[in-house]
TrEMBL record:
Role according to the record: Catalyzes the NADPH-dependent formation of L-aspartate-semialdehyde (L-ASA) by the reductive dephosphorylation of L-aspartyl-4-phosphate.
Residue stretches making up the Semialdehyde dehydrogenase NAD-binding domain: 3-122
Upper taxonomic lineage: Bacteria, Bacillati, Actinomycetota, Actinomycetes, Kitasatosporales
Keywords for the protein's UniProt record, in alphabetical order: Amino-acid biosynthesis, Diaminopimelate biosynthesis, Lysine biosynthesis, Methionine biosynthesis, NADP, Oxidoreductase, Threonine biosynthesis
GO MF: aspartate-semialdehyde dehydrogenase activity
Gene it is expressed from: asd
Database matches in InterPro entries: Asp_semialdehyde_DH, NAD(P)-bd_dom_sf, Semialdehyde_DH_NAD-bd, Semialdhyde_DH_dimer_dom
Organism from which the protein derives: Streptomyces yunnanensis
Name listed for the protein in its UniProt record: Aspartate-semialdehyde dehydrogenase
Presence of the UniProt keyword NADP in the record: yes
Enzyme Commission number(s): 1.2.1.11
Pfam family, any one: Semialdhyde_dh
Residues holding NADP(+): T10, G11, A12, V13, R38, S39, S163, G164, N326
The protein's assembly and partners: Homodimer.
Length: 349
């Protein structure tokens, strides 16, 4: 039985961690919710209708690592960079959802369905990085294609939900959409959680652009799959777009492969992959959508792949449409599946 701290417990990902723990994803002795000073006194168990054995909410300064088995951080890169290693060096298994440690060579960057071996060698560091949400669904769809015919190039365009911007992002989309429906002239102003008004709009900029014109989010989509798939020379071109959708990220993925494939062989490889749901052309619809993926817990835990096709003029080029819940598959569930893997591989206990 584990004592698990959920750092950032009141945030969008932290709340999903609590809900998944409440659902019994790993055996829990006690959950310690960690939040900011202004959250002290909140009874998250009651607020969220949880039956988990919960300690009182504490701040990170007051979190005692003694007796703690795991800490899942979802409180941003600055807090992780400042606090995660303190807990890891005290023997706590830290799974960090931020970008703080992902590209550090000594820190495993893990998607359990893709590179579980990254957690094989004990005693590794007690610090494991959770990839970016849009990376996780991408590599879970790319892995079977790589095994089928070898990946050469990847081009991905993402259509990322407001929940990627947390509780504030969700609120801004709802309020902005309501304002426009009430008064079409209320077009919103630059700024806010996404830098631009999102309702009834598209914002092709997630994070700051670097001097090459790539945004922070696109840089993650280029670098993280190379580390997770063990393909340091994989060519990846990415465009990340924020779209006025509350939940679930969608991605249009185009790959070039080393070997020729058929639509049937690609569909079969995807359908045979645990944790993926493949939508064949004979199905109706032959594609997933954010609204339907978010509707049921069993679907929120899967990566959904549709519009599966091979380019008519090039049998080494395939295209996919990939949808997944960015709060579960892209963050909380992947982090807790890393804890599950840690239990199985002896990283814990
Ligand atoms: C986003 N991937 O969607 C980033 C962080 N969650 O905003």
């Amino acid at each position: 039985m584990l004592r698990i701290a959920v750092v950032g417990a009141t945030g969008a990902v932290g709340r999903e961690c609590l809900a998944l723990l409440d659902g019994g994803i790993v055996p829990v002795e006690q959950v310690v919710p960690v939040g900011s000073a202004r959250s002290l006194g909140r009874d998250l168990g009651n607020e969220l209708g949880l039956s988990l054995p919960m300690a009182e909410l504490v701040t990170l300064d007051d979190l005692d690592p003694a007796g703690l088995d795991v800490a899942v951080f979802s409180a941003g890169a600055e807090i992780s960079a400042r606090e995660a290693e303190r807990l890891a060096s005290a023997g706590v298994l830290v799974v960090d959802n931020s970008s703080a440690f992902r590209m550090r060579p000594d820190v495993p960057l893990v998607v359990p369905q893709v590179n579980p071996g990254a957690l094989d060698d004990r005693p590794g560091p007690n610090l494991v990085a959770n990839p970016n949400c849009s990376t996780i669904q991408l590599v879970r769809a790319l892995k079977p294609l790589h095994e089928l015919a070898g990946l050469e190039d990847v081009v991905v365009a993402t259509y990322q939900a407001a929940s990627g911007g947390g509780v504030r992002g969700l609120r801004e989309l709802a309020e902005g959409s309501r304002a426009i429906l009430d008064d079409p002239r209320a077009q919103g102003t630059p700024g806010g959680r996404f830098g631009q008004p999102l309702s009834f709009n598209l914002v092709p900029e997630i994070g700051l652009q670097d001097d090459t014109g790539l945004t922070h989010e696109e840089r993650k989509l280029v670098r993280e799959p190379r580390k997770i798939l063990g393909l340091p020379d994989l060519r990846v071109s990415a465009t990340a777009v924020r779209v006025p959708v509350f939940d679930c990220h969608s991605e249009a993925v185009h790959v070039r492969l080393r070997e020729p494939v058929t639509t049937e062989s690609v569909e079969a490889a995807l359908a045979a992959t645990p944790g993926l749901r493949a939508y064949g052309r004979s199905q109706s619809p032959s594609y997933p959508m954010p609204r339907t993926v978010f509707a049921r817990p069993e679907d929120r835990a899967l990566v959904h792949v549709g519009r599966i096709r091979v380019e008519p003029e090039d049998d080494r080029a395939a295209a996919l449409w990939v949808v997944a819940d960015n709060l579960w598959v892209g963050a909380a569930l992947n982090a807790l599946q890393i804890v599950e893997l840690g239990l199985k591989n002896g990283w814990l206990g």
